[in-house]
Write a structure and sequence with these properties.
Elements (H helix, E strand, L loop, with lengths): L1 E6 L4 E8 L5 E7 L7 E11 L5 E10 L2 E8 L13 E4 L7 E8 L5 E9 L2 E9 L15 E4 L6 E8 L5 E7 L2 E7 L15 E4 L6 E8 L5 E7 L2 E7 L14 E4 L7 E8 L5 E9 L2 E9 L1
Antiparallel strand pairs: 1-2, 2-3, 4-5, 5-6, 6-7, 8-9, 9-10, 10-11, 12-13, 13-14, 14-15, 16-17, 17-18, 18-19, 20-21, 21-22
Length: 298
């Protein structure tokens, strides 16, 4: 399945498509969530399976009218009205906009995490909301708020990718003050001070230019991969489970790959293969045209 947003000529809608293993389109659709404003679905998670081949229900998460939003649909594309009565939920996190939801994660107990960044008092900060399986905010998360807002650096902090550890701890990775950054939270939403330098987060300069962390993955051994774009090149950094750079990886803990020479390369998504190889995909500019590009790293 593929989820995202589609332009109808005036505003953007949530949209999705489901493909068979042979690449044929089996079903697709779009829907308005935020009324007259634009809706940006940034992440899709299959929540349950109808059988071995067909998803039963799936979640789309992102931001609608500059607020966090979630929708649950069945495999035919109909809203699941057991989810917040309407099949979707829109939530200010906190009460000042804009709030940009970028990444979904589904806990084993069925609770739903949506992470991204929020504008608070003129600054941009990491934020995560947790929802119950019925679409309501989980008020057991972060002292009854149901959401985290966390300042990381002296600059702007953009949370782009969520990952859930097997022990229930929550990772949010992204870009802080133009550097790679990762924060780790306990399952109750508090910062995990065993991560980083006792503060619960790590901010890491990778290149001599701007470094944008876009996609997280956790290896079976607990090491953490953050992929993205460094000085307009593909890049991946690997961190030990405690947050320090793993200097056995690449050059001093990171790998930078120039795809098309002087043209900018933008890596957006990272995937870990079962054999441990790393796929990094995005788009690369060539001849004034953006094209899909992918690299595999050993």
């Amino acid at each position: 399945m593929l989820g995202g947003y589609c332009d109808n000529g005036s505003i953007n809608y949530f949209c999705y498509a489901r493909y068979g293993s042979d690449g044929t389109n089996q079903t697709s659709g779009y829907m308005s969530i935020g009324g007259s404003g634009s809706d940006y679905a940034m992440s899709l998670v299959v929540e349950s399976m109808e059988d071995n081949f067909n998803p039963g229900k799936f979640l789309l998460g992102g931001h609608c009218n500059d607020q966090f939003c979630l929708a649950r649909l069945d495999f035919s594309g109909s809203f699941d009205t057991s989810f917040n009565s309407s099949g979707y939920v829109i939530k200010d996190i906190p009460t000042t906009a804009p709030d940009i939801g970028n990444s979904l994660a589904l806990q084993p107990d069925g609770k739903i995490l949506l992470g991204g960044y929020c504008f608070v008092g003129g600054s941009v900060q990491f934020c995560i909301a947790r929802f119950n399986s019925n679409g309501s905010l989980d008020t057991s998360f972060v002292s009854g708020n149901g959401y985290i807002v966390q300042d990381i650096s002296a600059g702007s902090d953009y949370g782009n990718s969520l990952a859930l550890q097997p022990d229930g701890k929550i990772l949010l990775g992204g870009t802080c003050d133009n550097k790679f950054c990762i924060a780790r939270f306990n399952s109750n939403g508090s910062l995990d001070t065993s991560f980083g330098s006792g503060n619960g987060y790590v901010v890491q300069d990778i290149s001599t230019g701007s470094d944008n962390g876009n996609s997280l993955a956790i290896q079976p051994d607990g090491k953490i991969l953050l992929g993205g774009t460094c000085d307009n090149k593909f890049c991946v950094a690997r961190f030990n489970s405690g947050g320090s750079l793993d200097t056995t990886f690449g050059t001093s803990g990171y790998f930078i790959l120039d795809i098309l020479g002087s043209n900018p390369d933008n890596a957006r998504s990272l995937l870990l293969q079962p054999d441990g190889k790393i796929l990094l995909g995005g788009f690369c500019l060539t001849g004034g045209i953006q094209k899909f590009c992918i690299a595999r790293i050993r």
